[in-house]
Amino acid sequence: DQQVKQNSPSLSVQEGRISILNCDYTNSMFDYFLWYKKYPAEGPTFLISISSIKDKNEDGRFTVFLNKSAKHLSLHIVPSQPGDSAVYFCAASDSWGKLQFGAGTQVVVTP
Amino acid sequence: DARVTQTPRDKVTEMGQEVTMRCQPILGHNTVFWYRQTMMQGLELLAYFRNRAPLDDSGMPKDRFSAEMPDATLATLKIQPSEPRDSAVYFCASGSGSTDTQYFGPGTRLTVL
Q: I need a labelling partner for B80 at 20 to 30 A (CA). Which of B63, B65, B72, B86 fits?
């Protein structure tokens, strides 16, 4: 039972443009959401998070938006850079601190 | 630069052999998680410790997998006997417990022939 879904397995974007990654969840008990970035042969690296009491969190080029009524969150990267090419995982946390991960979206930033 | 370390980084073994993977969480972190990443299942949680006590290992095949924290600086994941279907990348992550953010190690790539 996949409670966190990333329906786009891949995304190609031109350098300098905006990357928008989407994530949907089904469990209304999730109260904290995170995005991780993963390069090949490395562990996932924490990128940005948002609490369920907020609808937006920004950190430099990265902004996460949360729409609780739609059970949807998105990650915006602007401007996209070649170093952003990686797999991005959406994750949601329950009250026990356990994370459920989406399947990931492969982002390729082209020159 | 605090980070989670894992050993070995790569392990190739034959079916039936025992495999032990080790993890050193970030100093001061009191939660430790073991995940397995496969192409088919993505990142799945195997076990979860808080203050060295196992809280949830429902994601782990009980008959062959075991996870322990002998002390606060070491977590182990053992597979005995190993099977080809155990081939995957195993990640350890730790957290401070004050937030839900987890910090991942580089992973152990396990290949069981």
A: B72
